[in-house]
Design brief:
Structural class: mainly beta
Helix content: under 10%
Distance between the termini: 90 Å
Shape: globular
Strand content: 25-35%
Largest sheet: 19 strands, parallel
Number of strands: 39
Radius of gyration: 25 Å
């Protein structure tokens, strides 16, 4: 009998425990992502029965319904259909997202319909996004253009930001970070950062914390000071990416690095950048200018320009710690240490123009006969984690079919296969027409 009573008591305990667990699950639901769908291009915060981008951001930040936007909950996803979303509610310097830029304070993904069809325009009145401290944000399939402020013309990052399959273009900062100012962490994947302007860090300004550039294009950015493409005083990895056509009136047309041993290039192409663009003989390093050292593996630095009179250092100024298999065309002003035996120094890279060679970003093709072809590491090209690179910047096979070795730089000559698919949400919601905004500025495309 004692055994029977013990068994019955145990059964009742299990039933009560299960009931308590079920009640807890009902009363305390687990946090999960919530979908918020934008259905108007108007920039508004009101109660007119629709959901604007600004209202969606507020709903995600506050986990509460705003107008017709459903309440955020946990890691929110904002679906932003094709259209041009111009920010018209003036009020720079306000940090609650009610006016001016869009302040992101929680964990949120903004999924557009593609960088050529979903455009967020700042109308040159304020920056466009402010990713605040503690926030984790993702921008996917959008273009961010015409932001303007003191720093971070397009985007300011104090928290963590991922930019995926997107474009940051035609933004301006009177200080630093024309496209993006990074005071937190940044990852850019298969994206274009182009045509931005600043005093320093035309495309991206990196301050201390890590930034990783993957399969992306940093091009056509300009500065009155240093770092036309990127200015970095922090940890930076440029992988399978191209820096091209960036200009600096000072030093570092493509890349300017400050006393950081944590700047690394892996299968990067740095070409057609210019230092001392104003010709006042104050600036060096058309491709790379480094106060200190940087490392490079399987990377191409060539055909850059420096207008500094007799003291010209067109491709590299500073110390390059070679991890092997780099091509540097002009080594004047560049001290190269580390694995030097496998490098190609003084060689013309034989590049095509920066253009659409497949994929979602622009690249410099390796022309037939280029010494960079099949000149990469025999053990395979690799990324910042030491993992093999199986595709080039465009998403095409690396190494090319039938080739024993990978190529130096971001482009793999003769590569076949389909580009890596872009994981961008396909928006199907019909956006409410907004006749009052018929004068939207078009996306700026390269010729």
């Amino acid at each position: 009998m004692k055994t029977k009573h013990f068994w019955q008591a145990g059964l009742w305990f299990l039933l009560l425990a299960a009931a308590g667990w079920m009640l807890t699950a009902v009363l305390i639901p687990s946090a999960r992502a919530n979908a918020i769908t934008v259905n108007t291009t108007d920039d508004e915060v009101n109660s007119d029965g629709d959901c604007s981008l600004r209202e969606a951001v507020l709903a995600a930040n506050g986990d509460t319904a705003v107008d017709a936007c459903t309440a955020g909950s946990g890691d929110d996803v904002i679906t932003l259909p094709p259209g041009t979303y111009t920010l018209t509610l003036a009020g720079a310097g306000e940090d609650n997202g009610q006016t001016g830029d869009l302040d992101l304070t929680g964990n949120v993904t903004i999924n557009g319909g593609g960088q050529n069809s979903t455009i967020i325009d700042g109308a040159s009145a304020d920056r466009i996004f402010d990713v605040q401290d503690g926030a984790q944000a993702t921008l996917s399939g959008v273009t961010v253009q015409h932001g303007s402020t003191a720093s971070g013309g397009g985007v300011n990052v104090s928290g963590a930001l991922t930019v995926n399959a997107s474009r940051i273009t035609a933004n301006t900062a009177t200080g630093v970070g024309g496209g993006i100012f990074v005071g937190g962490t940044l990852t850019v994947t298969r994206s274009r950062i182009d045509g931005n302007q600043a005093n320093g860090g035309g495309g991206i300004y990196v301050s201390f914390l890590p930034t990783t550039i993957l399969e992306s294009e940093i091009s056509g950015n300009s500065v009155t000071g240093g770092g036309g493409g990127i200015y970095s005083s922090g940890s930076l990895a440029v992988v399978n990416s191209t820096l091209s056509g960036n200009t600096a009136n000072g030093s570092g047309g493509g890349l300017y690095g400050v006393e950081s041993p944590n700047i690394h290039l892996y299968n990067a192409t740095i070409s057609a950048n210019t230092a001392d663009a104003d010709g006042d003989e104050n600036g060096n390093g058309g491709g790379v200018f480094m106060l200190g050292s940087f490392s490079a593996a399987n990377s191409l630095i060539g055909e850059n320009a420096d207008n500094s009179g007799s003291d010209r250092r067109p491709d590299c100024s500073g110390t390059l710690v070679s991890e092997g298999y780099n091509l540097v065309t002009n080594v004047t002003g560049c001290t190269i240490s580390g694995d030097t035996a496998s490098n190609l120094l003084g060689a013309a890279p034989m590049l095509g123009p920066l253009q659409n060679n497949g994929g979602s970003t622009f690249t410099h093709a390796l022309l037939s006969g280029s010494p960079a072809i099949n000149a990469g590491n025999p053990g395979g090209c690799y990324n910042e984690s030491g993992a093999p690179l199986t595709t080039d910047q465009r998403g095409f096979d690396r190494p090319a079919s039938g080739s024993p070795l990978c190529d130096i730089g971001a482009y793999e000559a003769g590569a076949d296969g389909s580009p890596t698919p872009t994981p961008t949400a396909t928006a199907v919601v019909t956006v409410t027409p907004t006749p009052a905004h018929s004068g939207y500025l078009p996306i700026i495309e390269k010729p």
